[in-house]
Amino acid sequence: MKFLSVGPGGRERPAVIDPLTGEWRDISTIVGALDPAFLAATTRLVEAALSSGNLPLIDQGERIGAPFIPGKIICIGLNYRDHAEETNARIPEEPIVFMKAPDTVVGPNDTVLIPRKSRKTDWEVELAVVIGAECRYLGSHEQALANIAGYAISNDVSEREFQIERGGQWDKGKNSETFNPFGPWLVTADEIADPQSLGLQLSVNGVLHQDGSTANMIFGVAETIVYLSQFMVLYPGDVINTGTPAGVALGQPEPKPYLRDGDIVELAIDGLGSQRQVFRAA
User: Fold this and answer.
1) d(CA 274, CA 68)
2) Which residue of 70, 89, 90, 138 shows the fewest CB atoms closer than 10 Å?
3) What are 151-198's pLDDT values in tens digits?
């Protein structure tokens, strides 16, 4: 199933896409908000309500918010071989881990703000993995996959000067407000047969820059979850941004086409929908 949140910022209500008609249906009478911990039970309730025909329609012209606000966002850097190569970085021997704060999350089509004094704001289309159960010290890929609630799209927006040239950790370049458009849907794990066979695309002002596949991850989804569970507890509602393929501004020849006020970024992942953001100066 595909779940979403619809409405003005701060007043979103949960919804589902009817798998038969494509209509959006309000499920706020069933759940107050989308909760990955109870997604399996929610799906069963929603299926019953859809069959009864009692769920009200939602206007598809309404704003789409993030499906939910994550507990924490764990990001994997340089996780595509072609992306590491384009940025002249060494292929990592273990996953590179950094964090984004949940308050960076906005809806998939919301305005993204270019920070003050920014000269190098960049784009990154990423597969977002949503955790559905507590994960501690997992021992197999099978365990990892069984604990996934679903998948979504993240744009891991980055400010490269803040990230790379200002010293310290990458977090400075990753946590500006609006720097994680998320959605449009939370697609349940049963709809994605193989998370390692999904195409990812991103264009800027109509020009295609990223056109990759999750097959080219250095550390796959299951391996990443097992790895992270050795260092931290993963809780329902945590999100893992799994890295981006080649084609970011950082990896292109000078003058690098970093984002400017008015630029339009569009991104998509197979089976997970699409996003569209207008970038504006903060």
Assistant:
1) 17
2) 90
3) 999 999 999 999 999 988 899 999 999 999 999 999 999 999 999 999
Residue 129 CB contacts under 8 Å (≥ 6 apart), including other chains: 148, 151, 195, 221, 224, 225, 239, 240, 242
Range of the domain at 116: 73-281
On whether both 122 and 52 belong to a single domain, the answer is: no
3-state secondary structure of 57: strand
What percentage of residues in the chain have a pLDDT greater than 90? 94
| Domain count within the chain | 2
Does one domain contain both 33 and 113? no
- Joined together, the tokens standing for residue 193 give 């047969």
At 64-113, the pLDDT tens digits run 999 999 999 999 999 999 898 888 889 999 999 999 999 999 999 999 99
203 and 110 belong to one structural domain: yes
State whether 213 and 167 are in the same domain. yes
Residue 14 corresponds to which tokens in the numbers above?
């949960």
Cα–Cα distances (Å) from 162 to 137, 170, 226, 236, in that order, read: 33, 8, 30, 31
Q: Do 25 and 158 reside in the same domain of the chain? A: no
Measure the CA–CA gap between 60 and 47, rounded to whole angstroms: 20
> In this structure, are 58 and 106 located in the same domain?
no
113 with 141, same domain: the answer is: yes
Question: Do 104 and 172 have their domain in common?
Answer: yes
Q: Give, in order, the Cα–Cα distances in Å from 23 to each of 3, 20, 57, 63, 242.
A: 12, 8, 7, 15, 30
Structure tokens at 277: 């953001």
